Amino acid sequence: MQATYTVSQIKGIISASGNIAEDITITILVTDSRRINNRATSLFFALSGRRNGHEFIADAYTRGVRSFVVNSQPDMAVTDATFLIVPDVLTALQSLAAYHRKQFSLDVIGITGSNGKTIVKEWLYQLMCPEKNIVRNPKSYNSQIGVPLSVWQINSANNLGIFEAGISRPAEMDKLEAIIQPNIGILTHMGTAHDEGFDSPEQKLQEKLKLFKNCEQIVYNYDLLIDFPDDMRERKCFTWSRKFNIATLYVFSETSISGKYYMRAIYKEEEIECLVPFKDEASIENAIVCWATMLALGYTPAQCDERIERLTNVSMRLELKDGINDCSIIDDSYNSDIQSLEIALNFLSQQNQHQKKTLILSDIYQSGLQLNALYEQVARLINNAKIDRLIGVGNSIAEYKELFDVPKTYFFTDTPSLLKDLVRLHLHEETILIKGSRSFEFEKISRALVQKAHETILEINLNTLINNLNFYKAKLQPGVKIMAMVKAFSYGSGTFEVANVLQYNKVDYLAVAYTDEGIALREGGIELPIMVLNPEPLAFDKLVAYKLEPALYSFTLYDEFIKFAQDELISSYPVHIKIDTGMHRVGFEAFEIETLCDMLEINPYIRVKSVYSHLVASDAEEHDLFTLKQITSFENAFRQIEDALGYQVIKHIANTSGITRWPNAQYDMVRLGIGLYGVDGAVSRDDTGLQPIATLKTTVSQVKRIPAAETIGYMRNGSLKADGKIATVRIGYADGYLRAFGNGVGKMLVNGVLVPTVGNITMDMCMLDVSNVEVREGDEVIVFNEQQRIEELALQIGTIPYEILTNVSQRVKRVYFYE
Ligand SMILES: *Cc1c(COP(=O)(O)O)cnc(C)c1O
């Protein structure tokens, strides 16, 4: 039932040239050589982009792939591989998917809009899966590459497809339309996301509407599109509105009742109702879109109401958290299907912090496959993932236990029996992936395994980290390496968690401030070369034992290291030479270079890997002349050193803003710091290519009514202008929310509203003026995120974003997300 085509059929479909070594049957399309599970039947598309696809062909070949789509014959002496040659590899992938789509006549819903696509898709899936066999994009695979890979999954058992399409530039939608070929269209919320790729919001809308050009029916918000293009009106439109009763579905009454949201509407001249189990604005709008779509597809109002009330949160994210007994927990307890299992296993394999890896997996539902075919696929993924233990929960998975080739397997009939035996499994020092279908309630397992966090957490979005890394990669001249600065717990964002992602995404070097930080990374399984900026002579033994590379910045330090190397019979040890070109912190100054060269020339104990210096104001225009002077004196210094050494070294001077503003100073490598974490004074805030990766959030512990005459907090510094309300939240200066934020200087987001602090910040708590906000105990409060930026907090108390980030204390639990 899976898509199967022979290589020769595919060659015809994509009009490729090239010789076929073996006419293999293909079931899987891959674009990332690191994600190869099922080698023999995989077809690898060597997409060129930021990462040149051809570099990865050799990698894919070593992993057993024998069929490739490429834009030129690679320079490889192999006879058992097929290279299908096409002018454009992405176009080939897209036309193969479009061809595959044409083989089926199922109903296909195409979803576009700027927000809510994934939620609406997943909710429609929840709402209609009782009677439909649905195929949909995994997660939010909605791009020029993600859509073809999603559509490729259609099989003959499916009777409904739900695919979202995302675009960021003109001309992209035509391509996605040709692949998805929807007959029903849904337009979700239109906001400002990706506006920068288009001349105007109208152009963006026009472009999005191209998805619907062959749709028989279109669902959209009438209020948003009163000027809906005429040619679209010729289609059957199902409109919804919260303002005008001429819409097909007119929502005329909305009330929030105890955490839920009750709506009444007019539909076909009857009054109908619907209860949504969410109350935030975005969820309500997405729920109305789903309501309208279900009605448009012929569901009765009663069915809609009954099902919408049971909608559940859609979590597309994997969460990486600290667990009990020194375990790391990857929590994906909310959904389970083959695609998301593959993604989660892949994330598990990126984790190097523990030797042992364990998977807790429930039965998988609604795959559209026969059970034996399903579990054969599941077993193939698991057997390739090199895990140490498999804990299966449910009757079906146990029935196929012979398929699993894992050193240790355990099976339980249901979640309660696993919970009963959990202690006896002795989970410790391992990375555990928890993945279950919703009905198995695996959140109970995750609750039992995850360390209790105090309710203030720093969330780190690892996908954003990767996007930021790519943002800077795109700014580099060819061949320039990246050293990622992960000192001070990656600017407060984590240790091995961040480093694992950077290693997997192939940065060249890491840098830490002190030896201990480097040791922590090595113990977390990081194998990249690591430079230590401030190596302490007392720790040289550990530095060498953990293969860390010292930066030598003074004659004293240089001599100490040489003496150590002599005593330990070490030769050619990799070191880095730091030049002071104007920072006047540490480093060899211009007048010292000659002496340094004399010493380097005769030294067998070390090998200079790199020479570097640091810019003091690369982001500040008023200091550009000084920056130029620094660059010139850096050039003089490294020329002398390279002459003396007689070999080339890696030369680097640019930090984050240096990459952006001084492209000619990239030399062989750049040192990317705060930009990775989403802050760069030299990048305009409108450039959405760079996004903050961290969200600091806390919760309300109590709400109080306070008369104007009362004072609030220590030293009676706080009061309200009129009678009002305050909320006490679980964050204080011991968490890094400095006292300077007190008395109205700092602001936090409470249910979407920015409110000021009142009174002094205390050690573990502080108070907010919430007189004008609807708020309840337990509600979430945002200290900073992509909306309330770190940069603003820095301005409020007269500091820099670096300090805000690194201040978040270690007591605040870090939780990592990966989509
Ligand atoms: C911290 C640091 C960097 C990174 O600077 P950003 O401005 O955060 O990019 C680069 N080089 C050295 C020597 C550093 O100490």
From TrEMBL:
Gene3D superfamilies: Alanine racemase (3.20.20.10), Lyase, Ornithine Decarboxylase, Chain A, domain 1 (2.40.37.10), Mur ligase, C-terminal domain (3.90.190.20), Mur-like, catalytic domain (3.40.1190.10), MurE/MurF, N-terminal domain (3.40.1390.10)
Domain Alanine racemase C-terminal as annotated: residue spans: 693-817
Catalytic residues (positions): K487, Y714
Catalytic activity: L-alanine = D-alanine
EC number: 5.1.1.1
Binding positions for substrate per the UniProt entry: R585, M763
Cofactor(s) named in the record: pyridoxal 5'-phosphate
UniProt xrefs under CDD domains: PLPDE_III_AR (cd00430)
Pathway it works in: Amino-acid biosynthesis; D-alanine biosynthesis; D-alanine from L-alanine: step 1/1
InterPro entries: Ala_racemase (IPR000821), Ala_racemase/Decarboxylase_C (IPR009006), Ala_racemase_C (IPR011079), Ala_racemase_N (IPR001608), Mur-like_cat_sf (IPR036565), Mur_ligase_C (IPR004101), Mur_ligase_C_dom_sf (IPR036615), Mur_ligase_cen (IPR013221)
Pfam families xrefs: Ala_racemase_C, Ala_racemase_N, Mur_ligase_C, Mur_ligase_M
Modified residues (N6-(pyridoxal phosphate)lysine): K487
GO molecular function list: ligase activity
Keyword line: ATP-binding, Isomerase, Ligase, Nucleotide-binding, Pyridoxal phosphate
Highest taxon listed in the record's lineage: Bacteria
Stated role: Catalyzes the interconversion of L-alanine and D-alanine. May also act on other amino acids.
Family the UniProt entry places it in: Belongs to the alanine racemase family.
The name this protein goes by in its record: Alanine racemase
Natural source organism: Mucilaginibacter litoreus
